[in-house]
Fold this sequence. Notes:
It is built from 3 helices and 5 strands, in the order H-E-H-E-E-E-E-H. The protein is of the alpha/beta class. The chain has a 5-stranded mixed sheet with strand order 2-1-3-4-5, with helices on one face. Strand 4 (100-113) and strand 5 (121-132) form a beta hairpin. The radius of gyration is 21 Å and the shape is elongated. The two termini are 42 Å apart. Mean pLDDT is 87; it is low at 4-21.
Amino acid sequence: xxxxxxxxxxxxxxxxxxxxxxxxxxxxxxxxxxxxxxxxxxxxxxxxxxxxxxxxxxxxxxxxxxxxxxxxxxxxxxxxxxxxxxxxxxxxxxxxxxxxxxxxxxxxxxxxxxxxxxxxxxxxxxxxxxxxxxxxxxxxxxxxxxxxxxxxxxxxxxxxxxxx
Length: 164
């Protein structure tokens, strides 16, 4: 019969290591991040969008990492712009009118790692939500922008700091 201590020793030698904060950063190397403004460069502009997106991005980084956000010379830098905010008809009903409308938001992000340039990215992220064409955009815009920005921030975090 195998004793409990022998079994425990066998299993402890191959325990996988998980990081539950969503980040794969080495905090001995990375201590600071600079997240700059993300101005709206889209043809269609919803002014609160910039603040909503920036707040969600900064909140996610501070909640899921131990990085200190600073202005200027940081270990990591995230810059970018909101390049798209568009509406497009989706489903067409029997009367040839759209029954759903899609709101799409696109963000270009440039992520710079001053310690390891192989981690640098310059990428565009896009997310959308559909809503009934019977609704006015002004009635659903805030909720849709919050949902879309949550998704965009998750995509950006996973592509940069999450290092998946």
